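#struct-queue
[09:14] JT: dropping the first one here, sequence first, then the structure tokens:
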Amino acid sequence: MSVLFGPVVQQGYVVPDVDAAIQHWLARGVGPFFLQDIRGFSGSYDGKHIDADMRAGFAYCGDQQIEVITPEGSHPSIYKDFLEDRPEGGLQHLAYWVDDVDDALAGIEAKGCKHKVWQRYGEAPSYKAHAYIDIEDQPGVMIQLMARSDFYDMFFGLMKKSADEWDGVTEPIRMLDMSTGSPKAVPYERRV
């Protein structure tokens, strides 16, 4: 457990091909994966507004969530930066729950942790749902601070429950449908 952030709740991998990355994890018995095409996710990158596009897959291994992300679209992002430096992909961030992102950032600053906020998500202009930071004097794997909410409890709860009940065979990949405002699993459709 990090004395600055608490327990890690997610390992975030940025990869050139989400579908291949999901197969990698499924071969290791981790699943089922929930796949989502995210379009126009409001955020900021290095202080400038972006509408991020990505394809992301999520699964649980015990209490750890595994996320695989492939950036898409024309906006800059920390994910695109990562693949420019490491075209094969890899571990890009570790995520932690916080009650309030701004309070967490102020708290780690008060503890002497000098950091740069690279990317944030949520409603403009505050983007309070997520913050991706890097430690200034020890850059590398980023830290994602995720604000707790009823939505994320429901969103991640669906995935955790599915992993706990998964037989290792049935529907190893499921699409996330958010059309009703609540996450639900629908049959997987491979994108061509």
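[09:21] JT: and here's the second one, same format:
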Amino acid sequence: MSIRIAFHGNRTWKIGNLPDLRKVALSVLHGEGATGPVDIVFHSPTEQRALNLLWRKLDRTTDVLSFPYGEPELYGELYIDPVLAAEQAIRYKHDLHRELRRLIVHGCLHLCGHDHHTTAERVRMRALERQYDPKERA
């Protein structure tokens, strides 16, 4: 099955190494049985905060938002705040690209129905994140 990954906002935010980001997204999506294209959007903290308020009723930015549709024409969308991602990369002591990989894996797992509300869900999701992103094992 061919799954298309489209990136938006990557030029504005100077997001590099898209082939690697696409590869890690496809790894999760294929592994979890996704059936359609996914859009990955990089946009400002202000836009991310507005989406988070609208859809989650939380008046703050967040690193990644996932919108699963499960449709053949659009399986889902990920919205990533690259400013917050850069801050997290510093906090976690790795580079921005590694943080973006982490967020894409996490977001794709949400698109595929995984969550982390309970302890068991958190443990499962973390194990899947390590499985799909070998760089997270380090």
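[09:30] RK: nice, looked through the second one.
[09:31] RK: The two ends are 31 Å apart (CA to CA).
[09:31] JT: good to know. The mean pLDDT is 95.
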